[in-house]
Write a structure and sequence with these properties.
The complex is a heterodimer. Chain A is α/β, with parallel strands linked by helices. In chain A, 36% of the residues lie in helices and 21% in strands. The chains are: A alpha/beta, B mainly alpha.
């Protein structure tokens, strides 16, 4: 979809190139994240794709066409562009902001208007906001409108320069999730620049880790970068706990749940005791009438027949949804009483329980590549003891 | 005081006639100033050196004492409307030029960049984004020029130009005589009323032509 060939940019005042001989290929429908330390040239590279910055040498191909020398304004109407400060036009309504490119392309009024409604719905902004002005919107809302505006004319490519950088972490998390959901539907080709490796891991189908002058340190999927970093630079850039980070790429619904006895809050004490006896566990999870997790009741507590079940044991609080990633699940489990987390579906109904044992099992199946890589006689001794330590999933990094 | 009120009730049509002349000459000069000032501003705002030169020249105009400038124009432009308008155009240029440049430069670079990133060419960006956003600042410049020109237009009397300056100078020449003070005060009050009227007009015009999204 996009191909960069020997792209170089030298700024007049500097003697070293900002981007030096970069060649990169981006396939249709994938999100490629350009990530690297400040000053590595990632933003400059992205801005050369739509020629906001003109390359000093090299070529740019879009959908097979050499666009290095074509009229830049026409080129940019085919590419969506979202920047960190968003840059909504304050003197225009939200509707007019979104309609900018369609109008430039000569769309009829009805088509433009329908598209505006469609986009507002897609980005989760109420249609009543059409005639409001940017100054009336919050940062998160403005960012959504910025994305809607970039997608207005349905360009095949989107360029996003730290689009979620200026937003608070809570909203940013939500916007990232929503954007990923959106991408499932629209499957655009997206080039995304960020300095945050965690954002890159979360958002990217492939990540290009760039060094100074935009030299590629590694260009691969997040999984492979985390389990198989190309060199020390990449390792340092990923930061601590790469294997823990790897967990954020798996969902709790991907792993097997463990076997916990379940009963109802409305059951009798005898029925609950029966359930507990039939398994080897010493705790039972009681569900309410809607099958939502209610309380954990233990061996000891269930003996007190006079205490109603609603007051026995402890309330179940460590609950995660099925699509939660393993990293967040582990986080929840650490705060729970018994080191386990209850999985619920999107209606809040009980699905299963995970504990440290099952998560450890999952981690072990994720690391075959790493294990194979380090399978030489002296290091084999190091691997064995760690596995039998049991409860500690902290990877620490073998041989680092 | 009572003699002034008597004077006004007798001579209001004369004062009004002069006021209209005053208003017309200022309006003509303002119109020319807006055209030249905004056009020049658009040409130079991106070029540091050109902008500095333009601003320096127009600043210099303002420092020339008006009395002297009007006098110097007599051999060149003669008497009456022409020298008055030329001089007023020169004096009114700086505020409008300066505010046009400042206004255009104050447009958030992120906005300009996202406009460029969407494929707007330079002309579209100027007309649809930068000028509308700079407009409130430009209008403020126009209002400042208005105030300046209202006062300076009174000096046009030395070149037999139109306006209330005629009464003011006539009165000053005869100071001591009974009607002199009334003439001067009448002239000054007339200028003040005109200035307020013009300012209100531009204020309202500004509000009407400024998008709700950028009005505070």
């Amino acid at each position: 979809m996009i191909r960069l060939e020997d792209l170089t940019k030298v700024f007049p005042a500097q003697d070293k190139a900002a981007v030096d001989d970069l060649s990169l290929e981006i396939y249709e429908g994938e999100i490629v994240v350009l990530v690297g330390p400040s000053g590595c040239g990632k933003t400059t590279t992205m801005k050369m794709i739509n020629r906001i910055i003109e390359p000093t040498s090299g070529r740019i191909f879009l959908q097979g066409e050499d666009v290095t020398k074509v009229n830049p304004d026409n080129l940019r109407r085919r590419i969506g562009y979202v920047i960190q400060q968003i840059g909504l036009f304050p003197h225009m309504t939200i509707a007019d902001n979104i309609a900018t490119v369609p109008r430039m392309l000569g769309w009829e009024k009805k088509r433009t208007s329908d598209r505006i409604d469609e986009l507002l719905e897609t980005v989760g902004i109420d249609l009543s906001y059409r005639d409001r002005y940017p100054k009336e919107l919050s940062g998160g809302q403005r960012q959504r409108i910025g994305v809607a505006r970039a997608m207005a004319a349905d360009p095949p490519v989107l360029l996003m320069d730290e689009p979620f950088g200026a937003i608070d972490p809570i909203t940013r998390d939500r916007l990232q999730d929503e954007f990923l959901r959106l991408q499932q539907e629209i499957r655009k080709t997206i080039v995304f620049v960020t300095h945050d490796i965690d954002e890159a891991i979360k958002m990217g189908d492939r990540i290009a880790i760039l060094k100074q002058q935009s030299k590629i340190a590694q260009y691969d999927t997040p999984e492979r970068i985390l389990t198989d970093p190309a060199d020390e630079f990449v390792q340092d850039f990923i930061g601590s706990g790469p294997s823990i980070k790897r967990l954020s790429l798996s969902r709790v619904s991907d792993i097997e749940t463990s076997d916990w006895p379940v009963a109802g809050l409305t059951d009798s004490h005898d029925e609950v005791r029966e359930k507990m006896r039939s398994t080897s566990r010493d705790y039972v999870l009681l569900l309410d009438e809607q099958e939502k997790p209610g309380r954990w009741v233990g061996q000891e507590e269930i003996q007190h027949d006079d205490t109603p079940l609603e007051e026995s044991g402890r309330p179940a609080v460590a609950i995660v949804e099925a699509n939660t990633n393993l990293y967040d699940t582990l986080d929840t489990m650490i705060t729970s009483y018994k080191g386990s987390a209850i999985i619920v579906d999107d209606g809040g109904r009980y699905k299963g329980v995970v504990d440290f044992d099952t998560v450890l099992e999952a981690i072990n199946t994720m690391r075959p590549h790493e294990r194979d890589r380090h399978m030489s006689p002296p290091e084999q001794e190091q691997v064995q003891p760690r596995e039998s330590t049991g409860q500690d999933p902290q990877a620490g990094g073998e041989g680092q | 005081m009572s003699s002034f009120l008597d004077y006004i009730s007798l001579s209001w049509d004369h004062v009004l006639e002069l006021a209209i002349g005053h208003a017309i000459v200022v309006a003509i000069a303002l119109f020319i100033d807006i055209v030249i000032g905004v056009a020049l501003g658009v040409l130079v705002y991106r070029r540091e050196n050109a902008a500095n030169v333009a601003l320096a020249i127009t600043s210099t105009f303002l420092t020339i004492p008006s009395f002297a400038l009007f006098g110097l124009f007599i051999p060149i432009f003669g008497l009456g409307y022409l020298p008055a308008v030329v001089a007023l155009v020169m004096y009114g240029l700086l505020p409008i030029l300066r505010n046009t440049v400042a206004g255009l430069r104050s447009v958030d670079p992120a906005i300009a960049e996202s406009a460029q990133g969407m494929g707007m060419n330079a002309r579209e960006r100027l007309l649809r984004i930068e000028l509308p956003l700079a407009w409130p600042v430009i209008i403020t410049g126009v209002r400042v020029s208005t105030m300046l020109l209202m006062g300076i237009a009174a000096i046009a009397a030395v070149v037999n130009g139109p306006g209330l300056g005629d009464d003011i100078f006539a009165g000053l020449a005869r100071i001591g005589s009974p009607t002199a003070l009334n003439l001067v005060i009448g002239g000054i009050l007339g200028i003040i009323v005109l200035a307020l009227l013009f300012d209100t007009f531009f204020n309202v015009l500004g509000k009407l032509t400024t998008s709700r999204g950028i009005r505070d």
